[in-house]
Specification:
This protein is about 30% helix and about 25% strand. By secondary structure, the chain is α+β, with helices and mostly antiparallel strands. It has helices spanning about 5-10, 45-60, 105-115, 130-135, 175-180, 200-215, 235-240, 255-260, 290-310, 325; strands spanning about 15-25, 35-45, 60-65, 70-75, 80-85, 90-95, 95-100, 120, 140, 145, 150-155, 160-165, 185-190, 195, 220-225, 230, 250-255, 270, 270-275, 280-285, 315-320. α1 runs antiparallel to α2 (about 45-60). The protein is built from ten helices and 21 strands. Strands 6-7-13-11-12 form a five-stranded antiparallel sheet. A four-stranded mixed sheet has the order 1-2-5-3, with helices on one face. A four-stranded antiparallel sheet has the order 15-20-19-18. It is globular, with a radius of gyration of 20 Å.
């Protein structure tokens, strides 16, 4: 029996695991792009996930753990190895604390807290993806991020399940220690919330959702913004001097502004498009490929670097690409 076949057999025997050979990964990403995985395995049981992860890593096959797939660009060739997903999605309240499992959608978590009259996540309504991924990337919007309310995070470090407090998570703008230690897998987290008026929170969330849906329609095959915004204070002085003050929002300069200056709006390659109304929005028209998507990303990075001498940094993650191709220059 082949290595893939033997690994699949062992994974399929784990209680609570759903395993599949040759699963098209496009169905697990919001871009709707990506070739097949040799093995795809999913479970809602953390103990089964740990066993599956240990088997996959011990096999020597490439092993990738995914969440909601919102911020993934998967190679057209797929993954020659194992793709695992922990889909546990329980959410519960204990006083002003909210516990959630990483497989819960961020929207479900936002709706839960708003419905419970708990303030702190309402500005994050409409952000797609899993709650675990939101912790991983310190997701946020409208001047707030999930790090502001994180109390603790429970994760598997490859050997044991551990728990970090907020400070240990090393949160920064769209960053956390979990991004640096990709082998660590977030299982769950707790939030320290504040009491709020349910009607007011819902009104705020609905207003933001209406705005977000105009910019990023729910049916659009995209990852939201492709590139991180820039912290104004960290820009080179000569670049900062050229940025209009009206562009700076809460200490950040939108990457879209720099992209607009280099003619990004409306760019296309194949069926991959840069929106004509938002220079930091790239979407798949339906038949796009990862190859065309990464070529456009590379072109945009090159244009901004040539014009401004600053590096654009993606919010998306690359899966199934050779290391030298994983992050276009």
């Amino acid at each position: 029996m082949s290595l893939v076949g033997e690994t699949f057999r062992r994974l399929a025997q784990i209680p609570g695991i759903r395993a599949e050979l040759g699963a098209p990964l496009a169905q697990y990403t919001r871009f709707g792009i990506g070739g097949p995985a040799d093995i795809y395995a999913e479970t809602c049981v953390p103990e089964s996930f740990i066993e599956a992860l240990q088997i996959a890593r011990a096999s020597g096959l490439e092993t990738v753990v995914i969440g909601g797939g919102t911020n993934l660009i998967v190679s057209d060739d797929g993954v020659r190895g194992v793709v695992l997903k922990l889909a546990s999605d329980h959410i519960e309240r204990n006083g002003l604390s909210v516990y959630f499992e990483s497989g819960a959608s961020l929207q479900a978590l936002v709706d839960f807290t708003v419905g419970e009259g708990l303030k702190g996540l309402e500005t994050m309504t409409g952000i797609p993806g899993s709650a675990g991924a939101a912790v991983y990337g310190n997701a946020g919007a409208y001047g707030h991020s999930i790090a502001e309310v994180i109390e603790s995070v429970r994760f598997f470090d490859g050997h044991t399940v551990r728990e970090f407090g907020n400070a240990e998570c090393e949160f920064h703008y769209r960053e956390s220690i979990f991004k640096k230690r990709k082998e660590w897998i977030i299982f769950s987290a707790s939030l320290a919330m504040k009491p709020g008026d349910t009607a007011e929170l819902r009104a705020t969330a609905d207003r933001i959702l209406t705005t977000r849906n105009k910019k990023y329609p729910p049916t659009m095959k995209c990852a939201g913004s492709i590139f991180k915004n820039f912290l104004f204070a960290e820009l080179p002085p000569d670049v900062a001097a050229q940025v209009p003050s009206t562009v700076v929002i809460e200490g950040k300069v939108p990457s879209a502004w720099f992209l607009e200056q280099v003619g990004a709006k409306g760019m296309t390659r194949g069926d991959i498009h840069v929106a004509d109304y938002h220079a930091n929005l790239i979407f798949n028209g339906g038949q796009g490929t990862a190859r065309d998507l990464t070529v456009i990303i590379t072109e945009l990075k090159d244009r901004v670097r040539a014009r401004w001498g600053i590096p654009l940094e993606e919010e998306v993650q690359y899966v199934g690409f050779p290391v030298e191709e994983a992050v276009p220059a």
